[in-house]
Amino acid sequence: MKNFFLSFIVITFFTACDSSDDSSIVFDSDIRVDGVEFTPTNAIVSNATASMPGEEAMNFALTKGTIGNSDYEAINFTVNYPLTSSSAPNGVYDFGIGVIGEVLFAQGSYVKGSKAYSLAGYTVQVTVLSNTKYRLDFQNIQAVNPFALEEMIVISGYYEGEME
Description:
It is built from one helix and ten strands. The protein has 164 residues and is mainly beta. Strands 1, 2, 3, 4, 5, 6, 7, 8, 9 and 10 form a ten-stranded mixed beta sheet that branches.
C-alpha cells in the first residue's frame, strides 16, 4: 500500500510539468470524464522507468489548461510491459492489481484543478499507429480519490493522434 501511494504521488507530480494551450498536435478525441467531455490540448508520450527488471515502460499524458488553475485537467498513466513482448507497447493494460509477468498493467492519475484521483479499475488499450501517433481507448476506467474512496469517477472514450 505504501508503494501505491508513493507511485500515486510521483505520477501526480509528473503531471505538474508546464502545460500550454498553444500545442499544434493533430488528433481525434472523444474522452468523457463522468459523462463530461475532456478534450486535451497537449499529448505527450515518453519512456518511463519500468516497475520490475525485464520490463519496459512508457508514460502517456493528456492535458489541458494551466497548472495551478481550476481549468487544469490531466490524464497521466504509465504502461509496463515485458521486454520479451513482440507486440509491445500495443496491448490492453489493466489498472489495478495483477500478477507481474502475466498481465500487462498500468498505473496513473486523473487531475482536475487541485483534485487528484488514482486510476484504479478496468483497462486502457494502447495502439501504436506510427512513431508519433497513438490510439488510446479508455474502457470505463475507475478513478478514485485515495483520501475519500467513496468518491469515484469514470473515464471512457478514446484519443487518436499525434503525441509529442
